[in-house]
Amino acid sequence: MCAYRMCVSDVRIGEEHARHDRQMSSRPSPTVRPFLKWAGNKYRILAQIKAALPPGRRLIEPFVGSGAVFANTDYARYLLADVNPDLIAVYRHLQEEGPRFIEHCRSYFTARNNTGAAYYDLRARFNQTADVREKAALFVYLNRHCYNGLCRYNAGGGFNVPFGRYRKPYFPAAEMAHFHERARRAEFVCAAFGETMAGAQPGDAVYCDPPYAPLSATANFTSYSVQPFGVDEQRALARLAEKLAGGGVTVIISNHDTEFTRREYAQARIVAFDVLRTISCDGSRRGAVGELLAIFDGDGAPRPAR
To answer: What is the CATH number of domain 7-296?
Structure first.
């Protein structure tokens, strides 16, 4: 099995995107940033993912995350899933309400709310409220005001990321409007990857962006939800991808490029490349990290990398 490697330039995701928004209208086929900050979002490697995705009637994403792939592809239909109910609630409210929900979210983006005291009060409200709509709007607020846009929960299921101390958090109105427009083609579900992928049929394509395997034996998985995603889940996903490929469904999985993932993806074509790490708070650790796309072709047979 062969692979190729390339270096992907890092795109620094800051709190201000005004220049990007102004330039979007003048660029052919522009890429659109996700409206949520998201650790590991795939905006930086969209070109590699889109080159690997086959045509199809529907794209299934069992780990939709920030929706970067959804926002920048053109399938007739989408099935978008995640185990994080707060994330799916945001997407459903934006899908259903559009501009009304966007303006509701905007109401939290005030100078008064950009203080530590206000942030922790609103974070507590998010963790305590039974109002699903308010909680969805607060999720957008927390995402843009918390440290590094992290999504992290404690053992009790409470959102516990500290205040980010940004001068003026960016409100992603244009990106939310784009998402709302495209969401007409989508179904959003809160479900585990096995349940989501079970409904895949020939003619569908599946793109998986699971929590990444650790780069070393001492590294920990990043928890985007309260459910763990460890070695057993990584292996189960790989075996399910093999099964679907044998039934005519192409499955693509993103992950770190490690001995473990190479072994588990032995039946796939591997496209490898380097991506600059941006999430670490330690600047010395923000170096290039090997990533890969494992492509389980829908005819069930591994092929040479393109």
So the answer is: 3.40.50.150
